[in-house]
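Consider a typical record:
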Amino acid sequence: MPQLILSANEEAMPDSEHLSILRRGVDAWNGWRADNPAVRPDLSDIDLLDQSQAGACWDQAKGKVNLSGANLKGVNLQRARLSGAIFRKAVMSGADFTEAELDDADCRGVIATGAKFNLVEARGVKFQGAKLDGAVLVDANWCNGSFVRANLEGTSLRGNLSGADFWGCDVYLKPWGTTITGVPDIPVTYPIDTPVESILGLDPHTRRMVAEGVYIKSLWDRATVFGRFGLRLWGITCGYGQSLSRWIVWSLVFVLLASIVEVRIKMNFANHHIVRTDGDATTETVVSRIDRPDFEKAIYHTIVTFATLGYGDITPVTFAGRVWVIIVVCVGYIMLGGLVSIFATKLGRLS
C-alpha cells in the first residue's frame, strides 16, 4: 500500500489546495509531494477523521503515515491508529490525539504546545527534543517512551510512565511547595501515577524531590477531615519538613506570644544580692522579689525556658504560672527537636 508523505520544509500551502490534492488519494498526494519538496503542507484545524475533509486517502493511510514537518495545528486525530507514524518536527500545537494509538511513533522535535494526548496508547513513543509545554498527557500509557530534553513546562503528566526516559528534563520538575493554608502544592509535571523509581533519566536530587512530593500528595488525597487538619498544621509550620525558615519564624512567633503572656504572671526573682560591710566583716545576703516581669525579662525567661536551659533565677509563684512554664518547656522541646531535624536533613542533602 502506498505511504502518505507529508514532509515539509519552507513555504506554506493554502488549506483549500492541500485538501483538493489530498482527496485524490495516496498516489496523487505522494506524486505532488515528489514534485514540490520545498512546499510545506498545511493541515491546520481540519478533521482528518472527517471523510468530507480528508476523503478516503487518510482512511487508507492511517497508521503508516509520514507527517514529518507538517502543519497539524488544531488537527483532530481522536482515536486515530498512528502506531509507527512519523511526526518528526511537525507542528501540532492544539492538536487533539485523544484515545489515539501512537505506539512507537516518531515525534522527535515536534512542536505540540497545548496538544491533547488523553488516554493514548503510546508505548515506546519518541518525544526527544519535543516542545510539549502546556500539553495534556493524562491517563495514557507512555511505557518505555523517550522524553529526552523535551520541553515540559506546565505539561500535565499522568498515566503509566514506567521505563520512560526523562533525561535532561529535571529543570521542568520544579520543587513542590505548600500554600499559605498548608495545602501541598504539587506541580502538574509530577508523574503521580508511576513510582519515580521506575522512571529513567532523573538525577538523584530530582528523583528524591518528586518522590517526596508524590508521597505528601497521596497522604493528602486519602486523609480524613481530621487528618487534613493535622497535615495543614504540618504544612503551615514547616512546609512538610521542607522549610527551615517557616519553622524558625513560627518558633519566634511562639516566643513573642509566650512573652506577652508572661508579663501577666507573677514571678519570683531570686539571686538578688545585697552586700553589707561592717568594719572588716562583709556579709552577703540573697533575697527574693516577687513581681510581674517587664517585657525584657519576660523575653529572657521565655527563651531560657523554651530552649530548656532552665537557669532558675526566675520562677513562677502561682499554679497557673507553673502550668504555663510546663507548656513552654514542652513546646520548646518539640520546636527545637523539629529545628534540629530539618536542619540536619538539609545539611545532609546540601539543599
In short: The first strand starts at residue 11 and ends at 12. The radius of gyration is 34 Å. The CA atoms of residues 266 and 292 lie 4 Å apart.
